[in-house]
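Open question from group meeting: does this chain pack into something compact, or does most of it stay loose? Before anyone orders reagents, we agreed to write out a predicted structure and look at it together. Recording both the input and the output here so the notebook holds the full record.
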Amino acid sequence: MAAALELFGRRDAGNVSIDDVASAAGASRALVYHYFGGKQELYVAALRSAAADLEARLRPRRDDRPLEELAEGLTRYFDFVEQHAAGFAALLSGGPANHSGEIGEIVDGVRNRLFHLITRQMRVDEPGPVLRVTLRSWIASVETAGLDWLEHRDVERPVLERMLVEHMVALLRVGAGHDPQVGRLLRGLLREHVP
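Structure tokens returned:
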């Protein structure tokens, strides 16, 4: 699985063969086919493995203040990005054509579960449309920041993580101008926040 994620993260899935994966893993081609059936099945299994690992890391560790937990969650997120660069890149890179079918379901599943983790941590039962768009926009920004950081690494991780927490607050401030629910949420978060 690790060999497959490494290869799929560095090259387009169409340019990775079962022989490449078997060779990188030190296994026989027949063994890879036995366990996975084919390249598509192996690719999907590798992405599911990366997604499960990422989700496990993002679960809140305690019932903390939401912005502090968000900051800690970002640290765990970027730990995953750094330790599993290939898996992260394989999970998120590529255009819409690469995110159809099972693969799209995996990526969308991670995003949806992350959205629900954030709303639960912020103690929001029913996010309205403005909050929903705000949070989904922030999740997309975090994904993009992760891919950019892997490519360039010219911003220190702690700085990037703080920027992303501040980005969340800034997006909520904008949303608060359009929806009282977001305004109440933001005021509550800032009251609980200890700088």
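Observations to bring back to the group:
The mean pLDDT is 88.
Residues 129-152 form the longest helix (24 residues).
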